[in-house]
Design goal:
With about 450 residues, the protein is mainly α. It contains 17 helices and no strands.
Length: about 450
Amino acid sequence: MALRKKLIYNTALLTGSSLLMNCIGMAFQIWLVGRIGTAGIGLYQLVCSVTALSATVAISGIRFACTRLVSEELGLENSAGIRGAMRRCTAYGLFFGAASAAILWFLAEPIGFLWVGDARTVLSLQISAFSMPCIALCSAFSGYFTAVGRVWKPTLVHLAEQLSGIALVALFLTMSPEGDIEKSCAAVTAGRLAADLLSLLLMAGVYAADRRSYYSGDEGGLRLTGRMLRIALPLAVSAYARSALSTLQHLLVPKGLKAAGYSADGALSGYGVIQGMVLPVILFPSCIMSAIAELIIPELTEAQVRGDQAGIRQTVASLFRMSLLFSSAVALFLFLFADMLGYVIYNSGEAGYYIRLLSPLVPIMYTDMTVDGCLKGLGQQVWSMGINILDALTGLLLVWWLLPRYALSAYIGIIYFGEGFNFILSVFRLRRTGALGIKARRSAQGTAAQRSPAQPGQRA
């Protein structure tokens, strides 16, 4: 019961903060579209696609590894292991963050000219390189706070990061020439970099104060380094492959649209409408699912360490049903009010059209977030990443083959296929673990039958 209350509290906290930050981010996105235009948004999305790959290298699985490792030590009630795990995780993050920064800095020109095919991205890529160590270390700290159940601390840090980032981006944009999308994109990137630096300073300070609750002690025999590497490295390699394929897919979209007859700026605009305008609206209410997906990882890990298989089945089945109900309600709302949302948010009928077109996909997208969190909590992270790699590879091939022929219609179809394909494979894997399906229902019924009549509300 205490674990359930903690999960509900942390979910409510993360959901409320995510809603607040999403509202702020959406308002800022609307202003940014008006300031740099859809072509500028498209160019920035291309930069984000490359930096997402670089950030994947910087993180290299450390956030999940940190959450899992600290959760295991908590399940074993070993305080000394928690501090030892964090020392190793931060060193790991610093190493990969610095390596990612060096790679992005030195390869910015070849990537911009040859890979992206737009020289206007080079300056922004070079600026982004300095964010990589910050992202890696903040990921390790966030993994720690998720494991120990004190998510309100990184939540406040992320809110401060977002507010400062918006202010700094707005400030830097006032210094860039209006209409110059290269310098506008660089100004946005510079604002994000400054916010990342502030976030790292705040997160490090919060962690330094929090870690005092765990004494040093003797770490002998814990094999923390080996355990960390066995968790992080397979996940990192899988993430590299998936992120590289996803980045290539996004970079091929404007090229495919140009091959279909769009102009260079027209291709960026079409890509920017879907990636930079429509999908943020579609994913806006998903904060509750992403919060649950993150928080369920340490809960399932601790239950797995204790051998509480019945509790795992009951929890996973309940989360699955809740995800389907919530996402179906969101999909219906988006479908009915798509035109109004497009005009109110962006003053764009085109955005409303694509919101309605993608709204039936919401139940699959949102529920897949919960399924992914459950798989990671049960130690199935490599399987989860393997599914994501297969999804990204299939999407890349479809973009390369179909976009030059059918333009944006093909892109919408590819999004549908990829999300559905990923969801089916993920659910199948979750059922294979025994955490979802008929077994879960029978287990829940058996647990209820074994409860004491004097304590009908007590969780088994």
